[in-house]
């Protein structure tokens, strides 16, 4: 199994956000995608998950085309994602946020609620146990019956990742999972992500937090103005002169980038009233 981009391109009008990117992702590995703001990282995730249509080029999973398929079909093919801005059902409980994944993806909601047959419900009861096990894994079980919106920002991030795991994804796409987390939460997240490593799973993590990326990822892709500037191991990326110039600056600047990331964290993590804008799913 592998995920393959061939000459993948996305334009928004005249802006080419992703420019002929070709790459191959293998199961068992964790891939980091880095690059300055606006480099096209989220666009790459959005195309892979089917949220945005591809302008040209292809995305294949196991040799089967994903591009051009509907979002729920891509989800059924085993692709799961989290969002740069958290998207939870705020008024639903923590448990319900996972349980919504039990409904058939392609059925209208009213159909699901009225005609959900008993055998499916029984299966649902089993899956409920799966939900609770996942919540326990993410230390969210004591919060299972609270509204998602009442959770701390860090716990909401964890819930989003737990939800992305509900269908046992073969491709897990995480868009800035550490955004808004403090240092301790980021370290905790890094450990958790390490445990999600699976021989059958491709993990792709878009992230600005260099400590997380460098310590977690097996391979790193560097995007710059929509182009794939470099692909290599964390050590190779840190040593590459072009990457240094385009993104990391000199080695001295790495400290500056860390400081900037820390600032961003402080700004974002101030408290419920100063949270970044969140969209409803
Ligand atoms: N829906 C959209 N419509 C028009 N332009 C868009 C859209 N989404 C992204 N863009 C533009 O495409 C470029 C790449 O955006 P993208 O969000 O993929 O960058 P990014 O690398 O994720 O940046 P960041 O680190 O800030 O999240 C940017 O110039 C952005 O303004
Ligand atoms: Mg982004």
TrEMBL record:
GO molecular function: ATP binding; ATP hydrolysis activity
A GO cellular component entry from the record: plasma membrane
Pfam families for the chain: ABC_tran, BCA_ABC_TP_C
Keyword Ribonucleoprotein tagged: no
Stretches assigned to the ABC transporter domain: 3-250
Region (Disordered): 262-281
Alphabetical keyword list: ATP-binding, Nucleotide-binding, Transport
Nucleotide-binding keyword on record: yes
Alphabetized PANTHER family for the sequence: CONSERVED COMPONENT OF ABC TRANSPORTER FOR NATURAL AMINO ACIDS, CONSERVED COMPONENT OF ABC TRANSPORTER FOR NATURAL AMINO ACIDS-RELATED
Full protein name: ABC transporter ATP-binding protein
